[in-house]
Amino acid sequence: MNSLDTIILEVADPAAARDFYARAFGPDLPLDFRASDAPSDGFRGFHISLTMAQPADVDGLVGTALAAGATEIKPVARSLWGYGGVLRTPDGSIWKVVSSSKRNKGPAGRAIESVVLLIGADDVAASKQFYVDRGFGVARSFGRKYVEFERGSGTVTLGLLSRKGLAKDAGVPADGSGSHRVVLVGGSAAATDPDGFAWEPAAVSEPRTPTTNR
């Protein structure tokens, strides 16, 4: 079964980005950084979620991210599904910090339970088929609305939501153009999905020309 092992963010200054993420979220996220000045305007078509055990953990992580230089898109709040908020990091990526729990169960901590990358698909069914053909197992699927793939041996859970739905979830307009500014690493072969997200093999991660298909 295929899996998502690493997320490469394409940024103006990899050293500055590495320092920010270490201070904001800790040094152990499955992230790498690559220099890029590819144009990217508006919504980039994805966001990354960090799942925490309880609201106090969410508050703590959001607090350090804001102190490190992130900006708030949606303030942390309770909702039907749990507790969380949305941030934009200095490189322009959108991050959610969330917990399915609405109550604290103990002292605040910084342990991240899971990392989830959601892609905003123009056609969820077509993108789902691409990933199934590529060897991803489906964990949950709700028609043309939402798909979550099995994580397998990877460190990141991959999911699909409609582009409009994902933008609404993030609290930003759905319009965007230019590079996604992200590369997904996993599997044994390079590929580009129907929404223009590029994959590189897990064993090889060489510089590439940023994808501009959005």
UniProtKB/TrEMBL annotation:
This is Glyoxalase.
